[in-house]
Amino acid sequence: MAKANPERLMSDRLDAQSSLQACEHPGCAELGEYRAPRSRDRLGDYYWFCLEHVREYNKAWNYYAGMSDVEVEADLRRSTTWDRPTWRFGAGDRAARSQAFHRVRDPFNFLDEDGSNDPRQGGPARPSSYSPEGKAFAIMALEPPLTLEQLKRRYKELVKKHHPDANGGDRDAEERLKSINDAYTTLRRFLG
Length: 192
Description:
Layout: H1 6-11, H2 16-19, E1 34-37, E2 46-49, H3 51-60, H4 69-80, H5 94-101, H6 132-140, H7 148-162, H8 171-191
Helix pairs in contact: 6-8, 7-8
């Protein structure tokens, strides 16, 4: 490990000349050891004052002097993000967001504002075959995308076909009709 060079460390200190300046307050002969910004627009440029005059200057100095309320608010907003440009979360091109999210499985529709999680098909994505919705699609022999009108049409067809009265009081037809009714209710809830 290299040994510290004390001469190099001395060069890192403030310039000795700047610390030996006279106070810039008119008529003061003391040393100007304390700095104060010259203006809001030149924060890196300083006056050098003695302790008494820097306190006096700081009490009278107002960074926001001459700014309207709107300008003050805008400056505060800009300074909270270190003067970097910002935008609302989620703002931007909706089509680009939809393309990015179409690969994400989102069964609760958290990612899409309109409630659809498959933008390519314009409706809800196919649920898992193990979920109640997937089983209901299988019972009704339907495929997504599905509209409420299509669901109602298919329900009427199946009810006419499997109603016990149409099948001579057959118990199997009655059980099949119960499962169709449950599937219809589940898919209505799924379609919202």
